[in-house]
Records
---
Amino acid sequence: MVTNVLIVVSLIAFYFVINAIIIKVFSRKQDSLEEYGVGDRSFGWFLNAFSYIGGWYNGSLYCGWFANAATLGVFAQYVLIYSITTLFFMFLMAKPVWILGKVYGLETQGDLIELRYGSKKFKFVFAFFSFIFWIPWLVLEMKTLGYVVQAATYHSINFNIGLIVASAFVIGYSFLGGARASAVGNLVQGLTFTIVGVLAVYYLIVKAFGGLADLYYVVEKDLPQLLTLGEGLDGRTWASILITCTLGGYSLPGIFTTMYRADSSRAVKKTVLVAPIFGFMIGFMLLALGLGGTLIPGFPEDPQAGVFFLADKIGGPVMLGLIGILAIAACLSTISAVINVASVLISKDLVGTAIPKLDRKSLLKWAKILTIGIGIISIFVAMQDIPNLMFIALVMYDCSVQVFPAIFLGLFWKRINFPGASAGFAVGCFFSIFGNLFPAMVAFGGGWSAGIVGLMFNLVIIIVCAFVFKPYAKVDELFDTVKNYRETYSSKLM
């Protein structure tokens, strides 16, 4: 056992060293907020694509969603559907968001709200709630990271120690290197858990079942209930989750940073074309393996440890170490993406709005300090016992979907105005939050989730107000800017 532990720990340690070297080689001096927050808008399509993949497809796939696939079946595959459909909206947004970001120096989602609706107060409130709805992912991924390190090392490394050490590593390079270090790290980690991950998980499927077709044949024969939505999961529940996750996923602050930091809108669109291929492949392979996991003798009672059990049983410590690296890579990339965007968001949208006298150098200092501060607080929270993590994730999307109307409609319809956007957002959030806390409050929705009920009120308010109130005075200028901008495209990869 000691030898096995040494093999796994050595492999994981080697991967951390490789990450550190590559990030150091491609690092730049962080002497401006634009460099720290959006990488000086210089990312080619390849770097942007794989840094997006690294930040979006998280370590929870290897634990929580794998467990859901083993116990709930195909229901867990909603994550694959919304991960792809979200990119459709990102494709539509690429040109206007990138152009407005370039012309007006936008660095956060809140910057776009202020530009479109001309209200710093709305920007502050909008950014605050966007942060609250999004930050649970940071805690969830840190918690997953601790669990992965513990499971992958035969429980020889304590959960808290693994969580603290690994999280401190990613916080450190995010602090030192900003958006570029995060993107380069995500590139390395994204390539690792997509290309290497697909091959490794497919190997496990072949060894355990003979292949994908054989796996589904066995599941259909022995566990047919896993190939249906299951009891209590009707069509409206399924549709609610897909809609809120698709629109809510598009509305997360990090999506806009992905668009700002590209060197052209074409680079963003190429990201959208590349990301689904690799993301779907690793996600599908993992969840397919999870479907048949419980059929393997000795499968653990805690299904979150399932993929690590299978790796060790089939491939020994080397395969366990490799699967551990893949899961850790997914965690690290998500943590770095969230923490970098969150630190700039708080610095510029909250601190900068509350204290308008702060110059950009001061805001850069705030962003760096907040990277450490947010990281430490998140580590502390992640070390606590937090039940129902899947429920928290779904509630988060119920809330973040309320961001969608103000941004999406605001970019394509001139008549959308501040009264409608602010009132719709407030009412939508009210129903999303309290509807989840008190389900009877949204029972009139006939089975649709609190997020969908809130979104319907949100949309009605914003559309009605579009015909009652006048839009922001500068809205014509913004639409003309997008229409008349002549973009110079770049073909560089990095």
Note: Residues 313 and 492 are 43 Å apart (CA to CA).
---
Amino acid sequence: MEKKTKLEQRLDEHLERALAMQPFSEGKLSPNLLLEGETGTGKTSITRKWARKNDINLFFINVPYWIDSTQKTFDMLYGGEERIRNLSKPKTVLFLEHYDLGTEKCRSFFSNLVERHVLSTSNGDLFLPNILFTIATAWPFRELQTLVTSPLTEAEKQKFERYTVECDKEEHLRYLNDVYNSYIESAIKEGDEKFVKECKGRIALANHILSDKRFAYTSSESLKEDYEKAKKAGRKPGSERGLTTYTSFNRVLLASDGSKRSFLESWDSCAVEAEQKPIIEEILKDYKDVTD
């Protein structure tokens, strides 16, 4: 049996509880989950994988855009009112992306959603009786994280069970192996030999690098330093190309063709931590590209 990440195990627990609580009605709380963690720890991508594996209809709502967007932008982002009404189909989980980046006014609309399964849309309120539960993502608020202009209140946090997602090399490597092996399987069926080779190269690189003790993801302290440097330089914190997190590492993989040379070149364009480059070069010194 496939070993699951800690986050997937937690999501499984919520799914089991939610299914046991059906049918929902107004006033009945579902076991909502708040995923707290730095950007790039895999909160969204691992949840997407979990949803696919469990045949979950995962509906994303980018909280900052939900209330403040124009009708045209709203329809473009969410497929219009017709698609929103498809939320009534079975095994639907709402995913509130960047919950702590929404204004207090914006988040107040979701109180009804969390408490009574009533979603405020551009055309009025919509009762969603078949929503299994709601997942929201948030950064652990710090003074230097200026993107979080309105931190979650304790009352808001109490609407959720909280779970901290951290950069975990073992979990991310397991996730990458699963995702790329599924890509390879599909590409073999389609006869796309070039893509098969690229995926094999990418996952071989990931296994080689992430299994090495010398490689480490960005620490919380380094993230603080980055925000401080951006602040002093007059830049908007978080506007850089990417940090050495799970998300940025995967971005480097995707930008490469699966070869060592291409990976090192894509590192320069996708990652900002120059001090990590010599470590990567040392780890890959004796690495041989996948040839079959």
Note: The CA atoms of residues 77 and 240 lie 24 Å apart.
